[in-house]
Amino acid sequence: MLITKSIIWNLYALAYNSITESTSYCRLINSIVDYLDLKPGNKILDLGCGNGNLEVEIVKRNLEDIKITAVDISPQMLKRAKAKLKGNKKIEWVQMDIRQGLNFPATSFDRIVLLHSLYTLPAPEEVLKNSARLLRKGGLLVLAEPRAQAKLFPVIKENFQEEGLVTAFFKIFLNLPSFFWIMLINQIFLKKEIKKSRAKLSEEQILPELEKNRLTIKKKTTAYAGQDLVIVAQKI
Ligand SMILES: C[S@@+](CC[C@H](N)C(=O)[O-])C[C@H]1O[C@@H](n2cnc3c(N)ncnc32)[C@H](O)[C@@H]1O
After folding, report:
1. Which of 58, 88, 167, 171 pairs as cysteine with 163 (C-beta 3.0–4.6 A)?
2. 12-45 burial, b for 16+ CB within 10 Å, e for fewer?
3. Which residue's CA is the nearest one to ligand 1's atom 14?
4. What's the pTM?
5. Contact yes or no for 81/51 (Cβ under 8 A)
6. Dist. CA 219 → ligand 1 center (Å)
7. Residue 3: per-residue pLDDT
8. How far apart, in whole angstroms, are the C-alpha atoms of residue 229 and residue 224?
9. What is the CATH number of the domain that holds 55?
């Protein structure tokens, strides 16, 4: 199971670097780091870190003594992430399947991020429960996942509005191969899981799930051209 999953995400990694061409995505990353409200000395856990875009943004903020544990199932995602942040001592890269219990000491993190990583897991509630266990009292969990009815068109439209017709058109044109590759993997390997998981990540389902795990909602908003649900929750 671990091997099959990591192979699928390794294939995804081949095209995933192109996501930083999207202004909606860059804005999302920026806002997630803002919501994290990082303080010097914070220990941060990023579950499903992908190719390290969030880590790049956190490091840019130049906070002292922070430590990031960035976890992903895919060696290829981690390889690309490490290449972006070569030798950065603030980050520990860990290859791990986040469905397998999250084997870290309880209450050992000040901040936990789940950014577009729950929506492909058939049992996202298990990861939420384990994340809550790892968060210290007063610590923050920041979560951003596609909404149950998320569509691609509003994201494309936002990019056209932000960048202007010509730039956006060329960017999309140049990245078409990556775009189709990702769509293909979603359709062939992930479609069923995404459908199951998204239903469990609807606002009505996720808010009680967080409360059940002693995570109180501090902020609830949308991002990514309105297609993501973003929640900031605090451990009580
Ligand atoms: C859509 S990407 C998002 C990556 C990153 N958080 C971002 O927003 O750019 C989903 C990531 O979750 C990782 N992932 C999927 N299932 C996982 C699992 N069971 N355990 C650990 N990571 C997983 C994938 O390898 C991939 O890097």
Report:
1. 167
2. bbebbbbbebbbbbeebbebbbebbebeeebbbb
3. 48
4. 0.96
5. yes
6. 23
7. 66
8. 9
9. 3.40.50.150
Six token digits for residue 89: 């001592």
What's the pLDDT score for residue 1?
Answer: 59
Tell how far the Cα of 215 is from the centroid of ligand 1, in angstroms.
22
* Residue 85, domain extent: 2-235
> What is d(CA 52, CA 71) in angstroms, rounded to the nearest whole number?
10
Q: Are 23 and 160 in contact (CB under 8 A)?
A: no
Q: How far is the CA of 216 from the centre of ligand 1 (A)?
A: 25
DSSP 143-207: EEEE-TT--SHHHHHHHHHHH-HHHHHHHHHHTHHHHHHHHHHIIIIIHHHHHHHHHHTSHHHHH
Cβ–Cβ < 8 Å for 44, 61: no
Q: Tell me how far apart the alpha carbons of residues 96 and 112 are, in angstroms, rounded to a whole number.
A: 16
Continuous H helices in 37-152: 53-60, 75-84, 124-134
- Among 146, 143, 145, 140, CA closest to 216: 140
pLDDT digits (tens, 9 = 90+) for 46-57: 999 999 999 999
Residues with C-beta less than 6 Å from any ligand 1 atom: 5, 9, 48-50, 53, 72-74, 77, 97-99, 115-117, 120
pLDDT below 70 — which residues of the chain? 1-3
Token pair listed for 176: 């078409």
Tokens of 78: 């981690």
Q: Which of 9, 113, 125 to mutate to test the pocket of ligand 1 (most atoms within 8 A of CB)?
A: 9
